[in-house]
Amino acid sequence: MLDLDPNRSVTPPRPAATVLVLRDDGGQLAVYVIVRHPKSGFMGGVVAFPGGKVDAADEAEALAAHVTAVSPRFGDFGEDLPASAGALAMAAARECLEEAALFPVKDTELSHDGARALRTRVESGAPLAEELKRLGCRVDLGALAPFARWITPAAEARRFDACFFLLRRPAGQEGSFDPHETTAGEWATPADLLARFERGELTIAPPTLRCLELLATCESVEAALLLASRQNLRPVCPCLALDGDTPMLVLPGDPRHPEPTAIVAGPTRFVLRDGKFRSEHP
């Protein structure tokens, strides 16, 4: 799942964005997850949230008239973001459209079939700005609630500086995975996903695992958005360490991490057990 080597030259992280799309489901909170294609160059086969790296098109001037302002909490990510707030938010929305056919818009409603049709047209080469103009809508970047910022460990070959966002499921949209980049998609409760991970049925990367652990404390979308409003958005960069011969990724606040102050709630390390990194206290 990870290609960790403490002796490799450090690669600068690339800007990326990830979206946790949420809905209320029978008195419980559900999140949309995908399974990345096994042949994917990064995290192949893992259960993840829609997301990916920032593209040059995400800062295209042509999009400026077709997007809303971003959340004011963007400033809490820090002044060292590797891309502009607008590009990160647009990347989040675009990746969500591409990988899940879920797309936040304003000025008009975009149905489930409409979101899928828009994805198809954009995949076929239609400029997104022209499609938004045709539909008479803007991308609702303000609906993306900042939730976390994770930077891939320095020991990893491919590194990303990823901003995570929460998004309430756009009205009328149900989600549909992209058969090119993913192999499945589903709505599930965080508790169910965590239980399946513990049973060995799913592979989940540490940042995704911690997000699910945090969301498992919430019973509704409103509760999750309230949690997001209270999150520390400073970057979390795990460090590779060894417990004897056992690899682990330690987080800020762990005795083995150079940053003594915790940033994210929960256990401060992920320890490799049975081929998977699992949350553990020191």
What would you say about this model in short?
The protein is built from six helices and 13 strands. The chain has helices at residues 85-100, 112-123, 128-135, 190-198, 206-215, 221-229, and strands spanning 14-25, 28-36, 47-48, 51-53, 105-106, 138-139, 145-151, 160-168, 182-188, 239-243, 246-250, 269-273, 276-280.
> What is the domain total for the residues?
2
User: In this structure, how is the largest beta sheet organized?
Assistant: 7 strands, mixed
* CATH architecture label of the largest domain: Alpha-Beta Complex
- Provide the CATH top-level class of the largest domain: Alpha Beta
Determine the fraction of residues in helical runs and give it as a percent range: 10-25%
**What is the helix/strand order?**
EEEEHEHHEEEEHHHEEEE
Please work out how many helical segments DSSP would assign.
6
Count the E strands: 13
Low-confidence stretches: none
Which class of secondary structure composition applies to the elements? alpha+beta
Radius of gyration: 18 Å
Strand content: 25-35%
Shape: globular
